[in-house]
Design a protein that fits this description.
The protein is of the alpha/beta class and about 475 residues long. The chain has helices at about 5-15, 35-55, 75, 115-125, 130-140, 145-160, 170-175, 180-185, 190-205, 250-260, 270-280, 290-295, 300-305, 320-330, 340-355, 355-380, 390-415, 420-430, 445-450, 455-465; strands at about 20-25, 60-65, 80, 90, 165-170, 220-225, 230-235, 240, 245-250, 265, 280-285, 310-315. It has two domains: about 1-205 and about 265-320 and about 435-474, Rossmann fold; about 320-435, no CATH class. Helix 14 crosses helix 18 and helix 16 (about 355-380) packs antiparallel against helix 17. The longest helix has 29 residues, at about 390-415.
Length: about 475
């Protein structure tokens, strides 16, 4: 675990003494803290732990599990910021040797991170909060740092007032404690596969789609082999790895683990089982996709003799700054009105601004052409039935021309309302950047630089107010 603050330290001591519990959550690390939803996961865990602590009368620590064993570099190497130029900027690290195959905790970020840090400094406004925050990023994201280590350092600093504990999945003590679960999975993988497949079939029969496909022969483990971190598959002689096809007996896998516990790791289904085996877990904070695949996991928990924690959906938020709120009020817009591509929004706004007289005249023109073509078609039928084709062609040409006129009218309306559309486009960028929810794109430093520690405190306060009541509360 990373070095905790005073509040987290007290909770950690309680855990060590066997008189505390945890609310866990976790996420893959990402550059400079990644998207907002990682922060929101941790804050949800913190406010739920606070509520449960009062309910059970014992210390309850929020614990964030950093998925340092993950090997998907492409998902972890970037982040997004809206700059002072009101443009969305993607800041990304170049690939390093081993990216995409080696676990993230084995890969130093490299000196190219300096350029990424400079981009952040260029894009954030020069507020009083900016210098210490930029210094925090520089200290965490050095050339020799790893993405998981730097991510954890930054997250821990942001969340220090909330008493959040952190652990990296590859931590030596954690790997030793998770050994019994990993070995049990290795030795009983066929029975576990059958139990999981049966649960998936039950879910499908009930009308649900499977979230994690159960691969035939697949073991819920990864082993670092010649091609990096690879999925383990069962065969008659023991197991083999997915890409390199390196083969091992079960005894050889056990020996690999004994030599270096970090080479063996759980997959997405087994990781929560490991977590609950190692920590006294009351609840797990899950994102939308995680909630769905937890439905498949119960047989795996049961196979390891471990009770499932309560699954709590992570809370989310859409931050509406005052400058954006003024735009929404000015144009009588709800947040949901902007949840689609901006060109569609602009087109609808332009159509709404077309004068009634112009709209009516266009409709009358289309109606006149349609009626005239219908009348001519009927009249010409007695002369030659094949004239219907050329007459209909006239209709198509006329309607295309009317459509072209309508588009030019809309373009003229857009030019006339250019300032209004620019304001709405700015709101769209801040609420649904790249037409995605804000929390899945924006880096938290966009708000931290503007509002300081108050930002996290305000998120925690709003989440605490939104948290459902629990059992005997009050």
């Amino acid at each position: 675990m990373s070095a905790p603050g005073a509040r987290a330290q007290a909770r950690l001591e309680a855990l060590r003494e066997g008189r505390g519990y945890v609310v866990t959550t976790g996420q893959q690390p990402a550059l400079f803290g990644g998207p907002l939803y990682s922060l929101y996961k941790a804050v949800t865990a913190a406010v739920l732990a606070e509520r449960l602590e009062a309910l059970v009368g014992a210390p309850v620590a929020p614990l964030f599990w950093t998925a340092s064993e993950d090997h998907d570099w492409d998902e972890a190497d970037h982040t997004y910021l809206v700059g002072v130029d009101n443009e969305l900027h993607r800041i990304a690290l170049p690939e390093v040797d081993g990216s995409g195959s080696a676990p993230l905790h084995r890969l130093p970020i490299g000196p190219s991170v300096e350029a990424c840090l400079e981009q952040v400094a260029q894009h954030v406004p020069p507020t009083d909060f900016a210098p210490p925050l930029l210094e925090l990023l520089r200290e965490a994201y050095s050339a020799s740092a790893t993405l998981p280590g730097a991510f954890e350092q930054v997250m821990a600093a942001m969340l220090e007032p909330l008493g959040v504990l952190f652990v990296q999945a590859h931590a030596p003590a954690l790997k030793r404690l998770s050994g019994p679960v990993l070995m049990h999975e290795l030795e009983h993988s066929e029975a576990h596969e059958e139990a999981l497949a049966e649960r998936v079939a039950e879910l499908q029969a009930a009308g649900y789609k499977d979230q994690v496909h159960i691969l035939e022969g697949g073991v819920n483990l990864f082993l670092e082999g010649p091609a990096g971190r690879e999925r383990v598959y069962r065969d008659e002689a023991g197991v083999h790895l997915r890409h390199s096809e390196a083969a091992f007996t079960l005894d050889e896998v056990r020996a690999c683990y004994e030599d270096d516990p970090s080479v063996l790791s759980p997959n997405v289904l087994l990781r929560p089982v490991v977590e609950s085996a190692v920590f006294p877990t009351l609840a797990y904070i899950a994102g939308p996709s995680e909630q769905a695949y937890f439905a498949e996991m119960e047989p795996l928990f049961a196979a390891h003799g471990i009770g499932m924690p309560v699954i709590m959906p992570r809370l989310g938020a859409t931050v509406v700054e005052s400058k954006i709120g003024k735009v929404l009020d000015k144009f009588d817009l709800d947040i949901s009105d902007l949840h689609r591509p901006f060109h569609e929004i602009a087109g609808d706004r332009a159509r709404d601004e077309v004068p009634d007289a112009v709209r009516q005249a266009l409709g009358e023109l289309q109606g006149t052409v349609a009626r005239g073509v219908s009348t001519l078609t009927k009249a010409a039928r007695e002369i030659d039935p094949t004239l219907k084709g050329p007459i209909q062609h006239v209709r198509s040409v006329a309607f295309d021309a009317i459509g072209d006129v309508e588009r030019k009218i809309l373009q003229a309306v857009k030019r006339e309302n250019e300032i209004s559309l620019q304001q709405i486009e700015k709101a769209h960028l801040h609420l649904f950047p790249d037409t995605r929810p804000q929390e899945r794109v924006f880096n938290p430093f966009y708000y931290l630089v503007r509002y300081g520690d108050d930002f996290v405190a305000d998120v925690a306060e709003s989440f605490a107010a939104a948290l459902p009541s629990l059992g005997r509360e009050g």
